[in-house]
Specification:
The chain is an alpha+beta fold. The protein is 19% helix and 38% strand. It is built from seven helices and 26 strands. Helix 1 runs parallel beside helix 3. The longest helix is centred in the first third of the chain and has 14 residues.
């Protein structure tokens, strides 16, 4: 074996065994980058169980984060989702599952290209997509999807649908206060630009109620489910998000609110700027990369450091699970694939970590969970049956 390949084999073994040093990790990346078209290198990588697409271009790498992730051993009873289908472009960044690429270590506002979906098997369930329902002020509804491109006239309000998003003109105005409601079903997502220029991304099974023109001293909207907000700055007219007895006050900032009814907490995560979270007598100020967690039962609000990559994963086309139990993972999967969960066995207690593309068919996601845990799954129509 040529000396270069022999050295790469040694480095790959240390990489897989989590015993490589920082210098060895840097050397491994450099050698793969230099020999990215070598078929012998590809074979070595596959023999190591990584299946790395070495022909992929090297992105910018946060080596410190990559190194820390590799050398730090997971806590007890934590299952790594990358034990099957674990790959990385130049051994670090691009993960693949069943031929579908997805990015890891993305900045919070990254917009990765949509990866190709795996081939759908008989009885499989396709991933969700851009679809929603717009309820107008008079109660009439419009069905929206990713293919639409049209102008919607409602009262004096002009709305443009461009593929998977709605755009309200900033000069939108109505003689009387009118409200619209954008709702996504399970298996749907959509984006809306409000009259003030604020952009909102709605996750599946979510809704946003908002006025067609912001008048008065405040800009107030109502959220159910999950939404990511990029608020247009206007110090004279603060922006408020009302969500199930909680209020998020902002001037101009980027933040995410998760308030699904089947989750035990309501989480507000700040990425940029500053927000104030109010729930009854509880008032908390957040700094970037902090999140406020409201316990639904006690109504107590706590502030903690946020896992920004996990919070923003849905907007970037990913599921990210960091020390998550199986039931919590399946709730998130069920919302995106519009399926129900049926337990014929008690879910195992191990914790999962890793990332999966939201563009895969359901069988691929379940296959990875099976290979990384103790439970098995069966798809029955629109149900996931959890088996021993």
């Amino acid at each position: 074996m040529p000396q270069d390949l022999s050295r790469i084999k040694t480095l790959l073994q240390r990489y897989v065994q989590k015993t490589c040093t920082r210098e060895e990790l840097d050397e491994l990346f450099a050698r793969i980058a230099e020999m990215s078209e070598d078929e012998a290198l590809q074979q070595l990588v596959e023999e190591a169980g990584l299946h790395i697409p070495v022909s992929a271009p090297l992105p910018e790498v946060d080596y410190e984060s990559v190194y820390n992730s590799i050398v730090q051993r997971p806590p007890a009873k934590r299952r790594n989702l990358f034990t099957v289908g674990k790959v990385a472009a130049a051994a670090a960044i691009v993960l693949l599952l069943a031929g579908a690429a997805y990015r890891w270590w993305l900045p919070p506002d990254a917009q990765p290209p949509a990866p190709p979906t795996a081939q759908q098997l008989p009885g499989d369930v396709a991933p969700g997509g851009n679809k929603a329902t717009l309820t107008l002020a008079d109660g009439s509804t419009l069905t929206l999807d990713s293919a639409g491109h049209r102008v919607i006239n409602s009262q004096d309000t002009r709305i443009t649908q461009q593929n998977g998003q709605l755009l309200y003109g900033e000069d939108a105005a109505t003689p009387a206060l009118q409200y619209h409601k954008l709702s996504t079903p399970r298996g749907g997502q959509f984006k809306v630009t409000l009259p003030d220029g604020t952009r909102v991304w709605l996750n599946s099974a979510s809704s946003l109620r908002y006025p067609t023109a912001f008048t008065g001293k405040e800009r107030t909207v109502e959220l159910e489910g999950q939404g990511y907000f990029e608020v247009a700055q206007n110090a004279a007219q603060p922006f408020k998000v009302m969500v199930q007895g909680m209020e998020v006050q902002v001037l101009g900032t980027h933040f995410d609110v998760m308030a699904y009814g089947d989750e035990a907490t309501i989480n507000t995560t700040l990425l940029q700027g500053a927000v104030k979270v109010k729930a009854g007598e509880n008032v908390r100020l957040l700094q970037p990369e902090q999140e406020a967690v409201l316990d639904r039962q006690s109504r107590r609000v706590t502030v903690q450091q946020a896992d920004v990559k996990k919070v923003m994963a849905w907007k970037n086309g990913l599921f990210v699970f960091n020390n998550m139990a199986l039931p919590a993972i399946l709730r998130e999967v069920a919302r995106w694939y519009d399926v129900d969960i049926v337990y014929q066995a008690t879910p195992s207690s191990e914790l999962y970590g890793g990332g999966i593309s939201r563009n895969l068919h359901l069988s691929n996601v379940l296959h990875l969970l099976e290979a990384s845990g103790y439970n098995h799954f069966r798809i029955e129509g629109k149900k996931i049956v959890v088996l021993p």
